[in-house]
């Protein structure tokens, strides 16, 4: 994000610099708005999937792994913007990093809700493992072939669920 200059943004967006600055007084404001929009899109997809499995938390998790795998397989996918920003902006008080942290906390919370609905012995541990799985998949998208991302996520999910149900 820091490597992209305002001139490139203006050129790609086909807007005048004054218009850009009217809506986004600083580049950080633009980055925050972008992340917030990405956040809305991500959770809209999540909520749409979750609504299909109100009484089937395992089925919901599997469906989440499917759409996340499909997301990773897109030819233009360049990783999770939330994770990318967290890596780029190390300052804890940077507004973009704060949006990213809220997203990660929301992911962990939603996974914890699902884990509790599964009635496994240690739902917090399962939620942490699932968060690592999802975030690890986003970071590893360049290492996974388009045809393997979903299968890798689903098989890892199965192993985590089997371990959680066994109390491991």
TrEMBL record:
Q: Which residues bind DNA?
A: 5-24
Record flagged with keyword Transcription: yes
Q: Which InterPro entries match?
A: Homeodomain-like_sf, HTH_TetR, Tet_transcr_reg_TetR-rel_C_sf, TetR_C
Top-level taxon: Bacteria
* Residue ranges of domain HTH tetR-type in the record: 1-42
Give UniProt keywords alphabetically: DNA-binding, Transcription, Transcription regulation
* SUPFAM superfamilies linked to this entry: Homeodomain-like, Tetracyclin repressor-like, C-terminal domain
Q: Where is the signal peptide?
A: none
> From the UniProt record, which GO molecular function terms apply?
DNA binding
Database matches in Gene3D superfamilies? Tetracycline Repressor, domain 2
Query: What is this protein identified as?
Result: TetR family transcriptional regulator
